[in-house]
Design a protein that fits this description.
- By secondary structure, this protein is mostly helical.
- It has one domain.
- 79% of the residues lie in helices and 0% in strands.
- The longest helix is centred in the C-terminal third of the chain and has 35 residues.
- The termini are far apart.
- The mean pLDDT is 84.
């Protein structure tokens, strides 16, 4: 146990030396400030809220208590997050790159 802990400690000793590229940091900050990202996050939050509300309302009509409801909600949320990540992130990056390429 101590050998594993010492190897892990040695691995993360110089973690502050890992610096991000300043140009990448500036581009990420600029892209996060756009309304497209804010709108997508609000849409994602609304979809998660509506999904949770629908699952909880459907559970309230049943006479027996479903002990697996939390797991089912988690699975649905994970599926929505995966779908949104696979769809919106590449779409957003592609649109930004196409717009940048069109300008120059």
């Amino acid at each position: 146990m101590t050998a594993t802990l010492s190897r892990l400690k040695a691995h993360f000793t110089h973690w502050r030396e890992w610096e991000f590229n300043p140009v990448v940091v500036k581009e990420l900050r600029q892209s996060v400030r756009s309304w497209a990202v804010t709108g997508m996050l609000l849409l994602f939050l609304a979809v998660l809220f509506c999904t949770a509300l629908a699952l909880l309302i459907s559970q309230s009509f049943e006479t027996t208590v479903d002990q697996r409801l939390g797991g089912q909600i988690f699975q649905v949320f994970t599926g929505i997050l995966t779908g949104a990540s696979l769809l919106f992130i590449p779409l957003y990056v592609g649109v930004r790159l196409a717009a940048e390429r069109q300008d120059s």
